[in-house]
Amino acid sequence: MSLFSTLRTSLSGLTANRLWLDTIASNIANANTTRTPEGGPYRRKDIVLSPQGRSSFSYFFGRSGSMYAGQGVAVVGIVEDNSAPRMVYDPNHPDADANGYVAMPNINIVTEMVNMIAAQRAYEANVTVIGAAKSMAMKSLEI
Q: Fewer beta carbons within 10 Å, N or C terminal of the chain?
């Protein structure tokens, strides 16, 4: 793998992780939003990733130096979680139904925090790869 393809792969990971962190932050910020422009409570969002480039093992184990196992990831889209909202009894809430229950977003803060830590670690790993590639390039220039 060349230096530039290594950087390209890590940069695609950085971009995907940044969007993942933004999505998690949006979920946490809207954990108590009971009314949206679409109607109803906020729905949890998540990103969908897809591999870029060739991903077949035949390319990975192939003899050609121009064919790689993968060349990063691409964000395919952002999807909403369709699970049912949490129903909380609060008859004084302005969005309460006739029985006094409020439809709250389907967001679990603990799950979001675990996802945030995973996204942060993945981001750090990509930064480390970029640093290692830069260091190898600098060492090769010293030869």
A: C
